[in-house]
């Protein structure tokens, strides 16, 4: 009795996982649009790119909310900004950059968040 139950459970879990798409982190910018990574590298701000990747993964995480993802993104960039300052630009504009991008993803990211949730999560 246990073996058939385990087989059925395994089959259900396999099916659920096969329905979910692979989560993607694509750096800073829209997946099909403009990427900011090269600009960030030129400005010595490439230390913020991992925050963008975490933000992408958060958007793809089922039952997550956009505001939590966006707040975590802002905190990640702010924490990166508080690491030892290596350039003048970083010290002067880093926190402003964190706030600006927070507002941009909050305003313009709703469509991306909704698409990611539909793509990666089962509809109830």
Automatic annotation (TrEMBL):
Keyword Signal tagged: yes
Keyword Signal: yes
Species, as recorded: Adineta steineri
GO cellular component, one term: extracellular region
Source superkingdom: Eukaryota
Single GO MF annotation: calcium ion binding
Pfam families, sorted: PLA2G12
Alphabetically ordered keywords of this record: Signal
Any one biological process term the GO annotation gives: lipid catabolic process
Signal peptide start-end: 1-18
Annotated SUPFAM superfamilies: Phospholipase A2, PLA2
Protein name as catalogued: Uncharacterized protein
């Amino acid at each position: 009795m246990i073996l058939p139950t385990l087989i059925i459970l395994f089959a259900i879990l396999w099916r659920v996982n096969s329905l979910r798409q692979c989560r993607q982190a694509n750096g800073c910018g829209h997946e099909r649009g403009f990427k900011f990574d090269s600009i960030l590298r030129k400005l010595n701000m490439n230390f913020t790119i991992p925050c963008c990747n975490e933000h992408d993964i958060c958007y793809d995480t089922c039952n997550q909310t956009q505001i939590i993802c966006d707040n975590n993104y802002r905190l990640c960039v702010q924490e990166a900004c508080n690491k030892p300052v290596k350039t003048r630009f970083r010290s002067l504009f880093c926190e402003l950059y964190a706030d600006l991008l927070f507002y941009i993803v909050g305003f313009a990211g709703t469509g991306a968040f909704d698409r990611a949730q539909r793509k990666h999560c089962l509809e109830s």
